[in-house]
Amino acid sequence: MPELPEVETITRDLAPVLLRKKILGLKVSKVRLLKNPQSFFQRHLVGSVITSVSRRAKMILLGLSSGYTLIIHLKMTGQLVWHGLSKPMRIGGHPITGVDKVPNRYTYITLSLPRGAKLYFNDTRTFGYWQLVKSAALKSHFHRLGPEPLQENFTAAVLAQQLKSHGRASIKAALLNQTVLAGLGNIYVDESLFAAGLKPTRLVAEVKTTEVKKLVRAIKLILLSATVARGTSFSNYRDGLGRSGTYWDKRLVYGRRGEPCRRCSRPILKTVVAGRGTHFCAKCQK
């Protein structure tokens, strides 16, 4: 599943071709991907102008002139493809092996846009979804989501407060919990914990205030670096221009089991924490 840097990259890449465009039509061949009735989408989506393109956690948000916001979640295998008549396609999400045309057998939602342009939603395993929510109610809709780690108001004090009720959980499990912090996934939690010198299995209750400060700095640094690198690609992610992200070449622990740590040369270890494969250095992380 794309994490915060990947979704941020796709959002930025699609914004120039979607912003201020009127949605002229909607075609749906798998209605269970819609969280609202299809008639509701026809009423509040078709005819609307896209007024904003943004991100919350791992979701893409399209603000609409109808007063609603379209939430698109790519989940495990979702893919957005913008196809204009005179411009190169913009493809973001998960590539589909052996398929290079749109629409295709995995295309389940299509938006018609001005000048013959289309926005396709492909999903091989159909875990993704589209949902319309009143824009004025977005804050309450996302009330269970934790803060955005790249916002200026995300501080050590904020993270400490978020962690307060998770003292008996491992620090990795807590950071993967989207109610604690929004947008982080397995790759960037491992990388952030390494940068902060924290062992993934450490209990939250054992993490000191000074370490929380280091962790906040590490999270911001890693996410910013990954966003600049346009995300991480190692098997199934492409940015909004259909290209691989380059953060894979920068990672220090994730996916490097048995390789020497780039700080101390000891082999990177792998274990399982919170049900996820977890990479760390036993010397550099305490």
Terminal CA distance reads: 28 Å
CATH third-tier fold name of the largest domain: N-terminal domain of MutM-like DNA repair proteins
**Low-pLDDT sequence parts:** none
The ordered H/E elements are HEHEEEEEEEEHHHHHEE
Question: How many DSSP helices?
Answer: 7
Strand content: 15-25%
Rg from Cα: 20 Å
Q: Name the CATH architecture of the largest domain.
A: Alpha-Beta Barrel
Topology diagram in text:
Elements: H1 4-18, E1 25-28, H2 38-44, E2 50-56, E3 59-64, E4 68-73, E5 78-83, E6 90-93, E7 107-112, E8 118-123, E9 129-134, H3 138-141, H4 156-163, H5 171-176, H6 186-196, H7 209-228, E10 269-273, E11 276-280
Antiparallel strand pairs: 1-7, 2-3, 3-4, 4-9, 5-6, 5-8, 7-8, 10-11
Helix pairs in contact: 1-7, 4-7, 6-7
Q: Which short descriptors sum up this protein?
A:
286 residues; alpha+beta; 5-stranded antiparallel sheet; 4-stranded antiparallel sheet; 7 helices; 11 strands; 21% strand
What can you tell me about this protein's structure?
- The protein is an alpha+beta fold and 286 residues long.
- The protein has two domains: 4-141, MutM-like, N-terminal (N-terminal domain of MutM-like DNA repair proteins, Alpha-Beta Barrel); 156-280, Helicase, Ruva Protein, domain 3 (Orthogonal Bundle), CATH 1.10.8.50.
- The chain is 25% helix and 21% strand.
- The protein contains seven helices and eleven strands.
- The chain has helices at residues 4-18, 38-44, 138-141, 156-163, 171-176, 186-196, 209-228; strands spanning 25-28, 50-56, 59-64, 68-73, 78-83, 90-93, 107-112, 118-123, 129-134, 269-273, 276-280.
- The strands form three sheets. The protein has a five-stranded antiparallel beta sheet, with helices on one face.
- A hairpin with a 2-residue loop joins β2 (50-56) and β3.
- The longest helix is centred in the last third of the chain and has 20 residues, at 209-228.
- The two termini are 28 Å apart.
